Amino acid sequence: MRHIISILLENESGALSRVAGLFSARGYNIESLTVAPTEDASLSRLTLVTRGNDQIIEQIVKQLNKLVDVVKLVDLTEGPHIERELMMAKIRASGESRAEMYRLVEIFRGHVLDVTEGTYTVELTGPGDKLDAFIATVGDESIVEVVRSGVTGIARGPKGLHV
Amino acid sequence: MELTGAEIVVRCLKEEGVEVLFGYPGGAVLHIYDALHVQDEVKHVLVRHEQAAAHAADGYARASGKPGVCLVTSGPGLTNAVTGIATAYMDSIPMVILSGQVPTKLIGNDAFQECDSVGITRPCVKHNFLVRDVRDLAETIKKAFYIATTGRPGPVLVDLPKDVTGARAEFDYPKKIKMRSYNPTVKGHSGQIRKATELLAQAKRAMIYTGGGVVLSDGSKELIELTRMLGFPITNTLMGLGAYPATDRQFVGMLGMHGTYESNMAMHHCDVLFAVGARFDDRVTGNLEKFCPTARIIHIDIDPSSISKNVAVEIPIVGSVPNVLRQMITILKEEGLEPDREALARWWQQIDEWRAIKSLGYRNSDTIIKPQYVIEQLYHVTDGQAIVTSDVGQHQMWAAQYYLFDRPRQWINSGGLGTMGFGLPAAMGAKLAFPDVDVACVTGEGSIQMMLQELSTMKQYHTPVKIVNLNNQYLGMVRQWQEFFYEKRYSMSYMEALPDFVKLAEAYGHVGMKIERPADVEGALREAFAMKDRTVFLDFMTDPEENVFPMIPSGGGQNEMLLAGRDAMKNRHEEGMILV
């Protein structure tokens, strides 16, 4: 099962490598990982996507909690939540396909950020599977370059994750 | 008044009540050595190799229960200590390692004797710090001791750049420390404790299985009281020996790969398993698919990640062992809960039948020294009172099997990492913690040569230890596996060109003895232990091809033990060949 784990981490040097090191040392996989400061300068928020059965996820959560730099964490996939990822893609768009590409971007509610004679550079946000769907629809032969931010997320409802 | 960083380090050690520091100087820690030189409250022991500094601090911690402290320089000083740090980490030993580092402005420049100490040690410490500002120094050291000694203990490293130990700051040692990200649970969940106690009282064939956690948390007293109230059989892991007196009738011996037949059979057939401060290690469980097939399991551990890691547990209790056990004792008394005495009597009858097999029996000889006999005599000569450290291999198993440990912190060995070379420096550390107690280091000619240089430290600091070298001229455990699983192809397990250990001991200023006949074993040990103020190296020439039995071969279940004298190859599992 795919899980999105969101972590409040002490904003100390080396804290990120403790999380990454834990995953490699214990053989867990990381599908994506994002990290940035929060409104509280002493904390970073780290969101990671991993896969595993219940027993593995339980161990991952326990092992993460054991890290001294981890202040708090939540498995977002345990409850209702919102997931977003940002993607920028450079796609081939010339001749007959140029108008078709533009329509496709609009259907996926993307924006065009840059235009050249033969390409569009577009921005899309959404859950990971929406971005996957866009890439599949455009087709490999039309993709020049893709960058994705990795998944970030937040729980639904009035409560927030803080110290 | 402002102090230098180096002076702050020494003051912190005094505030923490550190009596002895094991270390080795070098460029990056010279400021600290200068500050140590002008005081005499913290005794510094100059080891001959940084690995020994870590092992000695570790041995000191295991024997005394206080955190062990060591000090090493940057680069190779730290990398040499890594084996010792990893050893302590695997066995959850409270330790603080202070390492020198190149000045902050040179960090990352590949400076002389620079290495990424925090990066290198990250996977084998409970936590580590790099101090970049002298004003953070005292608080960081306080945190290091706090983290090392609370919760599930472990080693904590503090990396100290040379400019930080040279700079000045006000010294203000925090009385208490509070960390929002680190709050170990001590008190167990009362509902879970009640459920566990009730389940124990209903058991017909209960088994108590306890590990190093009982020793680390000083929970032996509570464990003994509860075990006697319940009347259940109890086994200790290799790390847990001594937590329950080995000479007590309810003790069924160590369990696991080289545990007794009765303890492993009782594990396999129990209906309720009560695991206390133990972590279901692969050397204990054997094949997980065959582990305790009929048991409902209760598990107390201070580390939530130890629970249901290898084996799913029905009633987990996160908390400190003595704390939880005390609550269980109270519930038993208040509710007047009693186990089913008739069922228990039948269970003991079954266990006594397993016991009657005498799985630790061996055939002694008049002509060649059996290693088991040496350990039995060591037990006899020391009245079972010595602190025994060991290295790693066959001798370690024989020491665990044949020396009956009646008190916690009496048995000191590298159980998790299995570090050859651990025994001698650990013995030195234990002797410094308890100068008046006999300390024996049970070792082999392979292990002892990994840390031999410490004989020199032991001379300098006068730590009279008795070294019991079971010299079979083989890396015995390797040879045993090659005999069983590689058709006796003894690849690189024979030790040629061994030194004359008697002369070697004498060269270091100690006493050396070579013992070749069984009839001389007891006399030699008596003579050695009578020399209270000397380190004695007893080189016992033992049966080269003696094997450790009983044994659960890899891939086997706990009910599939090989006993001495039977065909060792009989129960070989193909899947076991890929396990270690």
TrEMBL record, chain A:
Q: Which GO terms describe its molecular function?
A: acetolactate synthase activity; acetolactate synthase regulator activity
Residue ranges of the ACT domain? 4-78
Question: Which E.C. number(s) belong to this protein?
Answer: 2.2.1.6
Q: Which UniProt keywords apply?
A: Amino-acid biosynthesis, Branched-chain amino acid biosynthesis, Transferase
Is the Membrane keyword given for this protein? no
Q: Which residues form a coiled coil?
A: none
Is this entry keyworded Amino-acid biosynthesis? yes
Q: Which InterPro entries match?
A: Acetalactate_synth_ssu, Acetolactate_synth/TF_NikR_C, Acetolactate_synth_ssu_C, ACT-like_dom_sf, ACT_dom, AHAS_ACT, AHAS_small-like_ACT
Q: Which reaction does it catalyse?
A: 2 pyruvate + H(+) = (2S)-2-acetolactate + CO2
GO cellular component term of the entry, any: cytosol
List the pathway annotation.
Amino-acid biosynthesis; L-valine biosynthesis; L-valine from pyruvate: step 1/4; Amino-acid biosynthesis; L-isoleucine biosynthesis; L-isoleucine from 2-oxobutanoate: step 1/4
What the entry lists under SUPFAM superfamilies is as follows:
ACT-like
Q: What domain of life does the native source organism fall in?
A: Bacteria
GO annotation terms (biological process): isoleucine biosynthetic process; L-valine biosynthetic process
The record's similarity note reads:
Belongs to the acetolactate synthase small subunit family.
Subunit organization: Dimer of large and small chains.
Question: What PANTHER family does the annotation carry?
Answer: ACETOLACTATE SYNTHASE SMALL SUBUNIT, ACETOLACTATE SYNTHASE SMALL SUBUNIT 1, CHLOROPLASTIC
Instruction: Report the function annotation for this chain.
Output: Catalyzes the conversion of 2 pyruvate molecules into acetolactate in the first common step of the biosynthetic pathway of the branched-amino acids such as leucine, isoleucine, and valine.
Name of the molecule in the record: Acetolactate synthase small subunit
User: Which species?
Assistant: Plasticicumulans lactativorans
TrEMBL record, chain B:
- Mind telling me which InterPro entries this protein's record contains? Acetolactate_synth_lsu, AHAS_TPP, DHS-like_NAD/FAD-binding_dom, THDP-binding, Thiamin_PyroP_enz_cen_dom, Thiamin_PyroP_enz_TPP-bd_dom, TPP_enz, TPP_enzyme_TPP-bd
Which ranges carry the Thiamine pyrophosphate enzyme central domain? Answer: 193-328
A Pfam entry, by short name:
TPP_enzyme_M
- UniProt entry keywords in alphabetical sequence: Amino-acid biosynthesis, Branched-chain amino acid biosynthesis, FAD, Flavoprotein, Magnesium, Metal-binding, Thiamine pyrophosphate, Transferase
The protein's required cofactors: thiamine diphosphate; Mg(2+)
Q: Which intervals hold domain Thiamine pyrophosphate enzyme N-terminal TPP-binding? A: 4-119
Q: Which GO terms describe its cellular component?
A: acetolactate synthase complex
State the SUPFAM superfamilies in the record: DHS-like NAD/FAD-binding domain, Thiamin diphosphate-binding fold (THDP-binding)
Q: Which residues form the Thiamine pyrophosphate enzyme TPP-binding domain?
A: 391-539
Q: Which GO terms describe its molecular function?
A: acetolactate synthase activity; flavin adenine dinucleotide binding; magnesium ion binding; thiamine pyrophosphate binding
Family that this chain belongs to? Belongs to the TPP enzyme family.
PANTHER family, per the entry: ACETOLACTATE SYNTHASE CATALYTIC SUBUNIT, MITOCHONDRIAL (PTHR18968:SF13), THIAMINE PYROPHOSPHATE ENZYMES (PTHR18968)
**The name this protein goes by in its record:** Acetolactate synthase
Identify the species of origin. Plasticicumulans lactativorans
